[in-house]
């Protein structure tokens, strides 16, 4: 039926933006997170020694604590199958988690960020086991009140989640506690309504303020996603809550162009400056924009490597995030030792960006915006899909093929057959058949949960149409 698939931009416009008419190089569509074929490693990685005593630290203005500029995001711990627990249903590889934590601490990392929601609910436990093997003064623990579901909005359920974090992390004090996902809607509730029910009407925020006063919480803040009215309200009420820190999404694309890649979030420049004007430190999430700033299009990667050959592609994004003076720490979800080592090189010590560097990255951001990727950060807040779709897997495969310059174009072009086969084979390898885009019925249950405000059903239909056209060998 004509209305089954929403085409989004026209096929002609899609191919025009991709440079249709040029030969497409067909590359095998590798799936998964093999560290030998990872966006941080390979020919895009940095080389050389990893210093043990040169980590850059920032001072917490409230406590005077020295916090490592590199923060360990614990949402992607490795599994026994050698993949990220964010994508893999296998058990967490505790031995490898211990090794990563040991190496991080040995090289100066002291901020570890987790959540009851990460790694299918097992991140706090794995993090607690690894960290408890070290003296308590060697690390700061950040975790969150991740009461996303209305089932957890009651005072009793929220406080139970909070207290469980202490048991899982094996501590009697949470150094940095966040209200998780402030600004996100839920069901029919917008961001403000969800915030009121999660934290205000049930008295949970008053409870947490009392816990901070009692010393069981060292620093209280929130992570911002979505509705700017909630962010502005909480800062307007700073004299009431005295936020110790706020976690925001910041990278060199979102700095000025957030509204161009998603319609809900506000530019990171505004968020950071609003916090800085009040002296509130920022904790940075998504410095790589869900991996897209390390898995950039080949010609963009070449320009980054040409400007600084010894540095990784990812390091440019981390340097950008760390160069603002009121950034307390920059989080990275590091599954493999290669990830950790690359980021340690970047921040040991940090080489702050010059004005010329910042202008260069702004040009890079504008170049990236010319490619029609979908702004998925692989947060998985859209999951699980009631119809079994692997929504992030579908979007990430589509983006990966665009960034690597191997999207099939016109059947008149050289290399079309190989590129077509590579896309379809790679799609089947990345996403099981029964979890692909053709299963979407546009129920819209996923849309309110997306911090990037992606119209997910529309994108599923767009990708399904593209795949069907490839299978049928239709002309574009």
Architecture overview:
The protein has 476 residues and is of the alpha/beta class. Helix content is 39%, strand content 11%. It has helices at 11-18, 94-106, 123-131, 155-169, 191-200, 204-214, 228-236, 238-241, 254-261, 268-276, 298-307, 313-322, 337-347, 355-368, 391-403, 416-430, 456-472; strands spanning 57-59, 66-68, 70-73, 111-113, 140-145, 174-182, 217-224, 245-249, 282-285, 327-333. The chain has an 8-stranded parallel β-barrel, surrounded by 6 helices. The chain has a two-stranded antiparallel sheet with strand order 1-2. The protein is globular, with a radius of gyration of 22 Å. The two termini are 19 Å apart.
Low-confidence stretches: 1-44
Q: In which range does the helix fraction lie?
A: 25-40%
Q: Give, in order, the helices and strands.
A: HEEEHEHEHEHHEHHEHHEHHEHHHHH
Structural class: alpha/beta
Strand order of the largest sheet: 3-4-5-6-7-8-9-10
Number of helices: 17
**Average residue-wise pLDDT:** 86
Range of strand content? 5-15%
Count of distinct strands: 10
Q: N- to C-terminal separation?
A: 19 Å
Topology, please?
Blueprint: H1 11-18, E1 57-59, E2 66-68, E3 70-73, H2 94-106, E4 111-113, H3 123-131, E5 140-145, H4 155-169, E6 174-182, H5 191-200, H6 204-214, E7 217-224, H7 228-236, H8 238-241, E8 245-249, H9 254-261, H10 268-276, E9 282-285, H11 298-307, H12 313-322, E10 327-333, H13 337-347, H14 355-368, H15 391-403, H16 416-430, H17 456-472
Parallel strand pairs: 3-4, 3-10, 4-5, 5-6, 6-7, 7-8, 8-9, 9-10
Antiparallel strand pairs: 1-2
Helix pairs in contact: 2-3, 3-4, 12-13, 15-16, 15-17
